[in-house]
Amino acid sequence: LTTKTLVIFPVLSIAPSKSPNTDRKRSHDLRLEEACGLARAIDLDIQLSYILPIRTPRPSTLIGKGKLEEITSQINAYDIELVFIDAALTPIQQRNLERAWKVKVVDRTGLILEIFGARAMTKEGRLQVELAHLTYQKSRLVRSWTHLERQRGGVGFLGGPGETQIEADRRVLAEKITKLQGQLETVRRTRRLHRKARGQVPYPIVALVGYTNAGKSTLFNQITNADVFAEDLLFATLDPSMRAVTLNNGMNVILSDTVGFISDLPTELIAAFRATLEEVAEADIIVHVRDMADPEADNHKQAVESILRDILEDVSGTTLLELQNKIDLLSEEEKQNLSSNPPAETYLQGHRDDLVPAMTIQISALTGEGQTAFLNALETLIGRSHFERDLELDSTQGEALAWIYQHGEVLSRDDSANLTIHLRVRFHAAQMGQFEKRFGHLMQGAKEKLAAE
Ligand code: GTP
């Protein structure tokens, strides 16, 4: 921890009422807490943090003169090097505040960009962040300078010696942006190829999603025993990481951990964020991990589901499993309340094209409670869409055998003496259809067995 930081969450204050609005106060406290979480995510050393009521936002500095001076003395007293204002500052406000306080000032978008930059691990992630950064800079540049240009009368031609500094800067940024977009497209193309190759690995993909800090990485680690960066930081995982996991019934799945969702994501960052979630759209099962101990749990659920609706092409074709996590932090009564709201009700109310969890399970990723129930639920849900078959092939059917190894999962194989091969294979519904089409005529009399209910 190095940079000494002041965190301010500004709120528009309205006329004081007789009875203080405790709900609003509570939600402000939570926002401040979230802001501090963001700052800690890039190891900022928070010296002081508070909610700052603002009666009239000033276009030049946001904050009024009196407050501004008060903050100057705090900055001196605490040796503050950075002020994080959890709001959207105009470029002019940011510049004026930096001048008045003589320290660096960042707003919400600026800070989240820093976090994304620090967390991006894949090439695509890094490029996306860089692109978002440049776009952010470009928009600031344009807005903060136009009025000056107008004062100067402006210079009417592009490029060349008469070009203003702002035009030159803007052009350099635009060129960098174009170049980055090109690189990004190349990376994406390669990734699509990889994914296509992986598509032939017939393991179902299970994607963990959830609001930031819900406990996805903790669960992922517990199940895979992998050492994925789990800590009490927002955005501990920007790029999805994947591991193969063998369930109790011998079935293999690929478990994929994804970046935490966050509401109020600045628009510049939405694309960068989406890119990290492409895996989710391809998942066979989406596991929504929820922090039930968070007072904002219901709002977070809505935020996550609305992002899922955006990402998924076909919501009705998605299998969703809801994990109510952190139940170790709940009282007996709160747990009772959770269980007395059975998911069956949502089934009845839910529209057909809406996201409705097929199952809801209570767990604690920390203590391990509910883990078995979760894994069993995965078996059941995957079982619904995967089929097991017993096949008999003779030595002339090499092509079919190769196809099976490539597209299905061979559970057991028995090469008997009379040159027939007995296979027990698990296919996904779609692959089974393909298999039928290509080789069905060779399989006359083969015994089929559906493992699914
Ligand atoms: P992002 O990467 O930011 O999206 O977070 P995440 O969803 O991966 O959360 P992570 O696993 O990093 O967990 C966040 C914090 O919650 C950590 O401090 C965990 O130790 C804690 N945590 C996770 N699961 C539980 C749980 O079941 N009970 C309790 N008490 N704490 C938990």
Describe the fold and architecture.
The protein has 453 residues and is of the alpha/beta class. It is 47% helix and 19% strand. It contains 15 helices and 13 strands. The strands form three sheets. A six-stranded mixed beta sheet has the order 6-7-5-8-9-10, with helices on both faces. A four-stranded parallel beta sheet has the order 2-1-3-4, sandwiched between helices. A three-stranded antiparallel beta sheet has the order 11-13-12. α4 runs antiparallel to α5, α5 (123-152) packs antiparallel against α6 and α14 (398-407) packs antiparallel against α15. It is elongated and about 95 Å long. 30% of the residues are buried. Residues 142-162, 342-352 and 444-453 have low confidence and may be disordered. Guanosine-5'-triphosphate binds at residues 210, 212-218, 230-232, 234-237, 260, 325-326, 328-329, 364-366.
In spatial order, strands of the major sheet run 6-7-5-8-9-10
The number of distinct β-strands equals: 13
Order of helices and strands: EHEHEHEHHHEHEEHHEHEHHEHEHEEH
Largest sheet: 6 strands, mixed
Poorly predicted parts: 142-162, 342-352, 444-453
Percent in strands: 15-25%
* Distinct small molecules bound, one entry per kind: guanosine-5'-triphosphate
* Overall outline: elongated
For the termini, the CA-CA separation is 55 Å
Helix content: 40-55%
Q: Structural class, from secondary structure content?
A: alpha/beta
Q: How many distinct helices? A: 15
Average pLDDT figure:
76
